[in-house]
Amino acid sequence: MKGLANIAVAAAFVASVAADSHGHHHARRLAQGSPVAKRAATVAYETAYVYADGSPVSTDEAHECIDDGSCIVLGTATPVYTSPAPTSTSTSSLSTKEAQEFFESKITSSSTSSWSTSTAWTSTSTSTSTSSFSTSTSTSWSSTSTSWSSTSTSSSSTWSTSTISSTSSSASAAASSSSSSTTTVSGSGTKFPSGTVKCSEFPSAYGAVAVDWIGLGGWASIQTTGSWTPGSLISDIVEAVSGGCTEGSFCSYACPAGQTKAQWPTTSQGATGQSIGGLWCNSDGYLELTNDNFDTLCQDGLGGITIKNELSDEVAVCGTNYPGNEMMNIPVLAGAGETVTLTNMNAKTGYEWEGKYTSGQYYVNNKGVTLEQGCVWTSADYPDSAGNWAPVNIGAGTDIYGVTYISIFPNTPTSSAELDFDIEITGDINGDCYLKSGSYYGGGSGCTTSLTTGGSAVIKFKKYGS
């Protein structure tokens, strides 16, 4: 993949060329937005272009790249992007490119209109999947792996589907998920003694962060499967809505700001695309590690991304519990005047959904909304503008080639709420990206930028209209 720069507007383009096979808010899930069609980039054609390394490219070639959707304008494009291959190996011609997009997928509940999200990179092959499972309150759920390609999507009131396109001739074989690491790596925090901590004990001593307002004894989600055989897909998943971690369940948790969960069953995911995450509560009532690549509960992000809250009120930023039930209940609190780290997900060591790399998805609530009010599915205090209905999403992560992307985009069509402050991405970035007075840079429906090599970015929360 190569980056293009339009000299006249100093905008960087990202073009994908032959890359490793891979692929949400998931590809399932790293070129998504909400369960709607992929947002189209607004591109102004100019007469002079160069690659990111300064070498020239013809106008016709650049326009062709833009027209077929393999290039976007960083800063003015949608929160959808293609990932560039390493400059040391990106010698393939644009005609051999393989699209790798930044996107999100959501799951709807037919009885509660709830959604969940997460993000990932995908390569192009046509596939859709639908699953059905129930909660402990007998609420019926219908879900699908939702993503969108450059050309088509579809959705309905109870479920949504879309196409993941791929130049690869082989389709994803199963909904199994694995880390791209092949050896055990050092995680963050204290080594977890697998099989010795009781399921009734929330493992805060080992780095997990309790989300007590969810009502699950601090756990972010509890997915009961009854049994677990590593290497086998799981078809029966019941999600608890109250209580604690029980035998025969995967119990997910939050991690501190700047870190992300390191435990999920890498070879045993939902048979029809459901994501499953957390520690395993065995038949003896003890917690077991589920990811052989880590002996800790959390892993550090790659750093380089912070939030600076310049407002006089706190802001609740809520990440998706992924893998898990995909609720936006992973808390990042930006106190008034404070600077906090936003986890920069590492695609190389992070969760993979059906072989596709994933990135972080965050819900930004209006100022003054607390974590308890905003990091939930439906907010009792702000049912139309918080939680799943928060006004704005932020996407962030580093792909397998080491390129870090950050995007800001509206949480549409789920929410019509307007954010009551401005957001601006500053620092060592390759293009402008901001939300000011309700309008995104370039006048589009969101924007995306990337970090320069070795650079860092600050996402500023600023007074509305400043």
Provide an overview of this structure.
The protein starts with a strand and ends with a strand. It has 466 residues and is mainly β. Helix content is 3%, strand content 29%. Among the domains are: 7-16 and 42-79, no CATH class; 184-299, no CATH class; 301-462, Thaumatin (Sandwich). The radius of gyration is 21 Å and the shape is globular. GO terms for molecular function: hydrolase activity, acting on glycosyl bonds. Belongs to the SUN family. One of its GO terms (cellular component) is fungal-type cell wall. Residues 111-184 have a biased composition (Low complexity).
Layout of secondary structure:
Elements: E1 2-6, E2 11-15, E3 49-51, E4 56-57, H1 59-67, E5 71-73, E6 101-106, E7 117-122, E8 130-135, E9 140-144, E10 153-155, E11 160-162, E12 221-224, E13 238-239, E14 249-252, E15 259-261, E16 279-281, E17 287-288, E18 298-300, E19 305-309, E20 315-319, E21 330-334, E22 339-341, E23 352-353, E24 356-364, H2 371-374, E25 392-398, E26 404-410, E27 421-427, E28 434-436, E29 439-440, E30 447-450, E31 457-463
Parallel strand pairs: 8-13, 19-31
Antiparallel strand pairs: 1-2, 1-3, 2-5, 3-4, 6-7, 7-24, 8-9, 10-11, 12-13, 12-14, 14-16, 15-18, 16-17, 19-22, 20-21, 20-24, 23-24, 24-25, 25-26, 26-30, 27-28, 27-31, 28-29
